[in-house]
Amino acid sequence: MDPIDPITPGSEEHGQAHSRRPPREPLTSDFATGTPAPARMAQLVAGDLQVTVNPVDGSEIEPCPPALRPGRPRKRTPDERAEAARAAHPPVPPGPAQHALPLLERQDERERLTRLLARGRSVRLTGPAGSGRTALLDLVAEDCLDLAPDG
After folding, report:
1. Are 76 and 85 within 8 A, CB to CB?
2. Listed residue (52, 46, 50) closest to 63, CA to CA
3. Pairing mode of beta strands 42-46, 49-53
4. Which residues contact 53 (CB under 8 A, 6 or more apart)?
5. What is d(CA 148, CA 151) in angstroms, rounded to the nearest whole number?
6. Is residue 110 packed enough to be buried (19+ CB in 10 Å), middle (13-18) or exposed (0-12)?
7. What are phi and psi of 137, to 5 degrees?
8. Is 115 exposed, middle or buried (0-12, 13-18, 19+ CB in 10 A)?
9. Which ranges of the chain have pLDDT less than 70?
10. 13: closest CA among 25, 21, 4?
C-alpha cells in the first residue's frame, strides 16, 4: 500500500503522493526596485475657481487668485480675424500653385443654402463620397462671412 499524504488531498486517488511545487518569486519585486513615475498635476481656471487636478493627493477646488483670472472675452478686430484665419490654414505645399476648379452646376444649391443660413436655419448636406459636399460648403461659408464674422 502506498503512503497517503495527509496535507495534499486526493493524493491517494492515483496511488502516489504528489510533491508540492516550490513557491514562485513575487511579481511585485521587479516593480518595487524602479523609481516611481512622476504624477502629472494640472491647474485650470473655471469661472472664479481654480481647480488643481492631482492624482496622488486628490484634486482641490479653491477660489482663483485675482492674478490668475483670465480676462473677459472680447470681439476680435478685423485684423485679428484675418490673422486667425491665416493661422488656421495649413501651410502651402511646395511646387506650382493649383488653380481652384469651378463648381459645376451647383450655383442654385449654393444660393439656396446661403439664403437658408441667412435666415438662421440649420442645414444638413448629404451625398455620397466625392460628390463635392466639402467644396460646396467651403463656397457657402465664403458667401456667409458677413453673417457671422467671428465664426
Report:
1. no
2. 50
3. antiparallel
4. 41, 42, 43, 44, 59
5. 5
6. middle
7. -65, -35
8. exposed
9. 1-19, 26-37, 149-151
10. 4
Cell matching residue 34: 524602479
**Residues shown for the chain:** 151
Kindly state the cell numbers that stand for 43: 491647474
- Which residues are within 8 A (CB) of 76 and not within 5 positions of it... i.e. 6 or more apart? 84, 150
Q: Which three cell numbers stand for residue 92?
A: 502651402
Q: For residue 56, what are the CA distances in angstroms to 35, 44, 52, 91, 146?
A: 16, 17, 12, 42, 50
Q: What is the pLDDT of residue 79?
A: 94
Domain edges within the chain: 104-151
What pLDDT is attached to residue 102? 75
